[in-house]
Amino acid sequence: MTSHSISLGAFNLEAQDPAALAGFWAAVTGATPSPGGESVYLPPAGPGGFAMFFQPLTAPRPAHQASHLDLTVPWGSRQAEVDRLVGLGAGYKWDVLDEYPHVQWTTLADPEGNLFCVAEHPPADRPEAER
């Protein structure tokens, strides 16, 4: 049987202003942007991080966003992280707090309207009634 090793190389986004959007995401992740021509590469900020690549918008944005980032933070820190990201320029959209016992999340939009979520998962040793 063959063993496979696959990882995320980068999450790619088209942007009206690639440098500005990369600047927002650099503040979110703590990474340092690396511009190249009209595009900007944002490397992972550290082990376990993820890269992003921003390039000029080539067509109008679709009315429905088919994919988005789910970012995970430690249990109990979601609201503080959401507040930090809103302070950086993210737009608040909605919370999903009681629908699922294994996760709570807040959906935000970056300055160009791309949706992303900030999620927290309760510790596995936490009683079900407290989740």
From TrEMBL:
Q: Where is the VOC domain?
A: 7-121
Alphabetized PROSITE patterns for the sequence:
VOC (PS51819)
Pfam families, sorted = Glyoxalase_6
Among PANTHER family, the record links this protein to: CONSERVED PROTEIN, HYPOTHETICAL FUSION PROTEIN
Q: What is this protein called?
A: VOC family protein
Naturally occurring in which organism (per UniProt):
Cryobacterium lactosi
